[in-house]
Amino acid sequence: MELLKRLKKQYNKHLPFVVYRKPDTSLCQAILQTDQSLETVHDFKETGFVMAPFSTGLPIILIRPDIVLEEDQQTSGQQLPFEIAEDDPEQEGKAAYISKVNEALEAIRQKKLQKVVLSRKITYKLQPDPFYTFQVLLNQFPEAFCYLFYHPETGIWMGASPETLLKYSTQEIQTVSLAGTQKANTNLDAVWRPKELREQEYVTQYIEKAVEGLADPTEKTQPKTVKAGNLLHLKTVIRASNPRVGLSRFIQVLHPTPAVCGIPANEAKAYLLANEGYPRSYYSGYLGELNKKGTDESELYVNLRCMNIHKDHVHVYVGGGLVEGSEPEQEWQETVHKSQSMLHLLRNSMEGLG
Q: What is the pTM of this model?
């Protein structure tokens, strides 16, 4: 892939860049910045590629589009099996995570929260080649927003997000309600539990209320089962025409979404910051095209199924939505299944597979 060769040179010079591929396409796009400066977003009228954190405290980084490149990257179409080894270090955190799940469920029983998304960070002592790993990721996740992001301020982030935060233009906005998770088999004939159906409906209702009055009345699809790597989710697409406010206002009411934070939003966020036990950084923030050059269009995705690659280790981030009726052991297994999405990439990359 000639584009990745160019990006390796950019990386060796410690210059910011991002390469990404939108869902269900083979076109990879790259944005390169020609100096190391930290560009940030102030009013969302800037142009470039944005990466925002889950919470305040870190900058909303903009990669300035000094150089824009494209390359068609056809994948093999042969996905490797999602498998997990018995000696995974994440198993060591099971008791602590289940304890936090029980605490969160107690807050839900006391009606302090309706839903909360509890996450965890897993550290693997691996040294993958990020460029090769990205090629494996493209092959494994044709239906996701796949990206490889580098800035000296953040290091390398990589992921395959199944969730759109917002598509915005002056004519229409579009977002999705994505919730409910189960391991994928050979087809999309999923049987959803009442807990999962309820969780997804909470998210849909929240989004509809959040954008009420900011555009024409919303239109939505029926919930549909969609595949994201080794997992299935419930997805509803929500649209509204004639937005009456700017991009920044929609981001303000939608981020963080109930799919990564909870309901009520402010109370859930405060709960997570106080009880989750680690800083999420850019995990469950958002990223994507901001005011794409020559247009008024922005296309942003939630930063899910992602990893942060360091010199001698990799952080992988996973989480699950808790509502009334959630079972702690099942919630733990959901995070294990999600971790497989990234872990298999790392191991296949280390072994030269894919």
A: 0.93
